[in-house]
Amino acid sequence: MNFLSNITRSEGDPRILRTGPSSLSMTDKLARGLGWFSIGLGLVELVAPRKLTRALGMEGMEPLVRAYGARELAAGVVTLSPDKQVGLTSRVVGDALDIATLLAAMGPRNRRRDNVGLALAMVVGVTMLDIAATKAVAVRHGRKSNGDARRYADRTGFPQGVEAARRVATAQRQGA
Amino acid sequence: MKALVWHGKEDIRCDSVSDPEIQDPRDAIIKVTSCAICGSDLHLFHNFIPAMLPGDIMGHETMGEVVEVGSGASGKLKKGDRIVVPFTIICGECDQCRRGNFSVCERSNRNKALAEKAFGHTTAGLFGYTHLTGGYPGGQAEYLRVPFADATHIKVPDGIPDEKLLFLSDIFPTGWQAAAQCDIEPTDTVAIWGCGPVGQMAIRSAILLGAKQVVAIDRLPERLGMAAAGGAITINFDEESVIERLNELTGGKGPEKCIDCVGMESHVSLSYPDTIYDRAKQFMMLENDRPHVLREMIYVCRGGGVLSIPGVYSGLDDKIPLGMLMNKGLTVRTGQTHVNKWTDDLLRRIEEGQIDPSFVITHTVGLEDGPEMYKTFRDKQDGCVKVVLKP
């Protein structure tokens, strides 16, 4: 099997023949997917807010959509970082804001209520994914209680004891 | 052979790769008997240090048995020799090597031009540690090619288990150099930030070098417990003020010697707003590191004291209080470890029973479990302090 990465190997260095399971779990991959989704949506909201507000019957709310776009971008960047828990949590908070904003636009005078309903359904779906990913990341990457249970009080590193180790330097100074 | 290969951020895999070959007469090939995951491997895992490429083999803490020797190394090594491989690759002949400044060997970095652009002058080649330092395949593998093998090795005797010797490759001399370059006096308080593997070695080194008191700073109970076992007074920075406690322990004067075993990824906490500031800037790619520990050391260190920095920093940082550093007359000593400068002495200390570095090992697994252990080590789960891999 050919691996693209092998073209960067110096001559004579080991090349990949067959790849094994990744340290990236399904949870990590889901978080990564949501991070990129956040960045994509954020860019759309920043670049084309008018198209969104027109489709949702929310004309005049472009500044708010842009602000939400900036929020999505920030959450996406954090979700793609090692601090994915913080990014995902901020996404859930953002989802709540999105839902509240869409609910407010569901009024009878909005001619695009159907579109808003569709958007609301999508946001609720993504919110469920965000919540699931947040919980899964917390379980997968959080410190478990048994980490605290491990105690290393007997691991001095000094076979002859700490006090003997302290005397080593004194003996050396006196010897010198 | 099997090897742990970097495929991207947080993506390490145990791959089948082709076996290494002798490329130069000074090379040797070793069959790896033990290797370890280092804290600085996590910086690569997070892709915080530039110039990693998919397909790079990880690992720079390795030991094993020589199975093949190039003609140029045969005077110093032979098949069957048991060696620990220092993480810094050294030619042993250049001006810097002759001065004992092995980590800035002028000849071992095969991407010297790149390193000169990045650092001004080249540093030594390192195993498994980005293409800035040569892009050499690392030792988390079944076999390892050792370049400049006639100089890049520490011969070790039979009869002592791998676990006691493996850390001569990096963390033991790193912790030792951190303490040694503090010029510890019998009246000194040595404060050590970070109780990971290097911090633990620095604590033992400071004790062996005769510090009056050693203070260890962290937040994880199991690591603080291990630090206390080694003779340190501990400070949990989640529970008390580091600065107040250090001043209290030193009669208000501050520690004479401060050692940063944390480096670029200091813990982010609401209690320390500068860490949030640094993290935000890192997200925006406006700052490379989170130098909270460095700031704290400069603030709390006694005037005329020494700051020793074995912790890895990668690039440009801001809000470093240089005025404070200058006015207090502090001395800063840092650098990658000149491993071979210290290993004869440290091997003797192990043989004499002064120290047994295996105390730090909390997990021993096969190479195939390596990808999972990267996460366990990163997330500090299951009391993980140090992982040894057995290929």
Features:
heterodimer; A: 176 residues; mainly alpha; 2% strand; B: 391 residues; alpha/beta; Quinone Oxidoreductase, Chain A, domain 1; Rossmann fold; 2 domains; 7-stranded mixed β-sheet; 6-stranded parallel β-sheet; 13 helices; 28% helix; 21% strand; Cyclase dehydrase (chain A); transmembrane (chain A); transmembrane helix (chain A); membrane (chain A)
What does the model show?
The complex is a heterodimer of chains A (176) and B (391). With 176 residues, chain A is mainly α. Chain A has a domain at 25-140. Chain A has seven helices and one strand. In chain B, strands 3, 5, 6, 9, 10, 17 and 18 form a seven-stranded mixed beta sheet that branches. Chain B has a six-stranded parallel beta sheet with strand order 13-12-11-14-15-16, sandwiched between helices. Chain B has helices at 39-45, 95-99, 112-119, 162-165, 171-180, 197-208, 221-229, 242-249, 273-283, 292-300, 322-327, 339-351, 370-378; strands at 2-8, 11-17, 28-37, 56-57, 61-69, 82-85, 88-89, 125-126, 143-146, 154-155, 189-193, 213-218, 233-236, 257-260, 306-309, 331-334, 363-366, 387-390. Chain B folds into two domains: 2-170 and 337-390, Alpha-Beta Complex (Quinone Oxidoreductase, Chain A, domain 1); 172-334, 3-Layer(aba) Sandwich (Rossmann fold). The relative contact order of chain B is 0.15. Chain B is globular. At the A-B interface, strand 1, helix 3, helix 6 and helix 7 of A face strand 1, strand 2, helix 6, helix 7 and helix 13 of B. Chain B: Belongs to the zinc-containing alcohol dehydrogenase family. Chain B: Its cofactor is Zn(2+). Chain B: Residues 197-269 form the Alcohol dehydrogenase-like C-terminal domain. Chain B: It comes from Alsobacter soli.
